[in-house]
Description:
Metallo-beta-lactamase, Chain A; 10 helices; seven-stranded mixed beta sheet; binds D-malate
Amino acid sequence: MLIRILGAAAGGGFPQWNCLCQSCETSRAGKAAGLTQSSIAIRSQSGDWFLINASPDVRLQIEQMRSQQCFVETGQRSLPFTSIILTDAEIDHTTGLMLLRESSQPLKIYASASVKQALTTGYPLFATLQNYCGVEWLPLDVGKSIAIASELEIEAFALSTKPPKYMQSEPGSQEIWGVGLTIRDRNTNGVLTYAPGLGAIDQSLQRRFEASDCILIDGTFWTNDELPALGIGGRSALQMGHLPLSGAGGSLEQLAQLKTARQIFVHINNTNPILIPDSLERQTVESQGIEIGWDGLMFTL
Ligand code: MLT
Ligand code: MN
Ligand code: ZN
């Protein structure tokens, strides 16, 4: 399979329109490459592309793919993705669906029942799109492998019980709001695990990561108190469902124990100093052999 990072930034992108943090200002000064919002695409050997998460930057991301001849064009106004797979119902991972409303066919969307519910009630994109191109919902159940193409199978695994801010959840509810995906190519046996929203790494996740040839993982925040320390938010990284990279128990420490051949951070928030080219933080990540995702990065597994 071929994998392309469409957008390596978290919600808000890099730089974020209203942010004057050091990283955003460095990017505006032309000293750090900008990044669009969180999404990837995968392609099977037969040529079908699948979109995983639909960011508010999807229009630009598709045009970038088109300019690099990624698509075999199949007709005017057709959607260049066979289907769309959603890991959660967060605004940064779903708002792009509205931009795809001009599609000549209904959008085929794999999503969990909770995501479908969220996008029908709290943020009713599915309901709205019914009056445009239409939506065909395809269930994505935790623990079940689904063949999305003759050579590609995906398995969703539970990652987060944190609902989007616009949804209510019963206190203590164990409802799964965010999943990760393990994608296997049956021809090459290449395995990718995608986990853009990750609050903790337990043993079963460690095993999953070690059984993968490449992992694309949550690189949102460097420290747990990153936003409160900058005076731009009240919640810690962990309260937002994102395991910070640094510190005891942080993802860098945990990833150092893993044998996964390729580890790449994605969903990187604009405040994260790893986005600044010469920063100590970036050097720390790279010296551990972990890559920092960027828009347009493509590789095969
Ligand atoms: C997240 O990744 O935690 C969400 O996208 C944050 C948000 O609500 O924008
Ligand atoms: Mn996000
Ligand atoms: Zn910023």
